[in-house]
């Protein structure tokens, strides 16, 4: 039997049931990804590879008019997502979050039959598996499934995002910096207006993550935004804006939109 924990996010505004040791445990990556959904009003958001649902639930908790779909292929992680949604602490989210058990790499009719219909969503978010094949593989099968990158991963995931997004819809993702070439190539003619933000642990240290946003059908040029530095100099404390993003107090909008405190 898998040991699980119930973890609070955004200062207790929502909770997530997660495996205690095996499988993928969500944290800051999921919260930064969720912060990239900055639209106001009614919108439909899809969280591809949602795991236990942390990123999607963070969107739903912060944007109460958003309808969020959690899409995950692992039956074990889908079960955790259902447990998360069933928590009494998440009662306020139940009416605008749903879960689909499906492989996001499905194509065409198989994808549609699995519930991933064409041109439905306003925003798609994703945190794809990030470990390269040469990385040391964990013996935990559930964790390996969530973390192990396969050849053509970004192409298949971004292809699905392009199919299920409405024209002009937004894609947001978080990944390792070394994936940038694959991400740009996968966006191809599907997405433009790429905005890339590098995330550094501290001043002078190499970036460990990047945030990418793009717009379906846009022909705007790629832009590298000012980087994030996670920690204040000489401390383990998060920089104020990063802490605000992590805890749902701010959104990270695309350029041209005002950063909106919440």
Automatic annotation (TrEMBL):
InterPro entries found in the cross-reference section: DNA_methylase_N6_adenine_CS, SAM-dependent_MTases_sf, Small_mtfrase_dom, tRNA_Adenine-N(6)_MTase
Ranges that cross the membrane: none
UniProt keyword annotations, A-Z: Methyltransferase, S-adenosyl-L-methionine, Transferase
SUPFAM superfamilies: S-adenosyl-L-methionine-dependent methyltransferases
Span of domain Methyltransferase small: 32-177
Protein name: tRNA1(Val) A37 N6-methylase TrmN6
Organism of origin: Rhizobium aquaticum
UniProt lineage: Bacteria, Pseudomonadati, Pseudomonadota, Alphaproteobacteria, Hyphomicrobiales
